[in-house]
Design goal:
Blueprint lengths: L2 E8 L9 E6 L2 E8 L5 H12 L10 H19 L6 E2 L1 E9 L2 E9 L3 E6 L2 E4 L6 H7 L16 E2 L12 E6 L5 E5 L1 H4 L4 H10 L3 H14 L6 E8 L11 E2 L12 E2 L1
Parallel strand pairs: 1-13, 9-14
Antiparallel strand pairs: 1-12, 2-3, 3-4, 3-5, 5-6, 6-10, 7-8, 7-11, 11-12
Length: 262
């Protein structure tokens, strides 16, 4: 499968530090959202990205390869953060792969960063959040429209590096000839609803432009958290490497609303 892609990240208007990290090096694309503050969350997300970057440039990546990266990342995060500190990271992403000669997306996720697919004008959330709020929605105790106001909206139930062996979810999806995949940290989805995300993805045909405008829109809508986006397109044109685009802003006076693990 031939792909083109773009990526962007911003620390937002509230946080002092960008604890997000991203990877856009075929055949692996992902976003990691760290938690734990300075020298913990930012370290955790970057350790995870470094482990998955070992897959870059391979002709083929399997489910076992991805799972091995999760296991190494978990060990690496615990070692890097050190005893007596708590640090971890979400990891969500895709790998273009194949089955019986047909193109597929291998989607993986731990935490509440998300993977969406835009196909035939419809935006679908593929991944499922590992969070207290999602569990309440799944059991009918919370309406989806009330999730943003819930006091536990930042409490996640799975992360990489927080002690337990990581337990990622996987999906294998047939890839359409005009698919567009969005991978993002929750800094995007807490500021923009699905309709706004869909509009911007459809309005910008270039994946780099789409990534940048999504991040810009989330920051302008409030920027309460770090925002990271990777956009991957199926296409016949040549793929081009796009480096992470970071916008630095003056440090705000205080930070709040930090993400935590249950």
């Amino acid at each position: 499968m031939q792909t083109s892609w773009g990526s962007a990240t911003d620390r937002g208007r509230v946080r002092r530090l960008n604890e997000d990290a991203l990877l856009a090096q075929p055949p692996v694309f992902l976003v990691a959202d760290g938690m734990g503050g300075h020298a913990a969350g930012d370290v955790a997300s970057r350790v995870a990205v470094a482990e998955f970057a070992t897959l870059a440039g391979r002709d083929a990546v399997t489910h076992d390869d991805v799972q091995d990266c999760f296991l190494r990342a978990a060990r690496g995060v615990r070692e890097a953060v050190g005893a007596g500190r708590t640090g971890g990271t979400t990891v969500a992403g895709v790998v273009p792969t194949g089955s019986d000669g047909e193109p597929y997306w291998l989607v993986f996720n731990v935490g509440d960063s998300r993977v969406y697919r835009l196909a035939d004008g419809a935006l679908e959330q593929v991944s499922v959040d590992h969070s207290i709020v999602q569990e309440l929605i799944d059991t009918g105790r919370l309406r989806p429209q009330d999730a943003e106001a819930h006091p536990d909206r930042h409490v996640i139930t799975r992360a990489v590096g927080t002690g337990a062996v990581p337990n990622p979810d996987y999906w294998l999806l047939p890839a359409g000839p005009a698919d567009r995949v969005l991978i993002c940290s929750d800094g995007l989805t807490q500021e923009l609803d699905d309709d706004a995300i869909r509009f911007l993805l459809m309005d910008q045909p270039d994946p780099q432009a789409a990534a940048e405008i999504l991040v810009q829109a989330a920051v302008e809508a409030g920027g309460r958290d770090n925002v990271s986006v990777v956009v991957v397109d199926v296409g016949a044109g040549p793929a081009s490497v796009v480096d992470e685009a970071t916008v630095e802003r003056p440090a705000p006076p205080a930070a709040h609303d930090a993400e935590t693990l249950q």
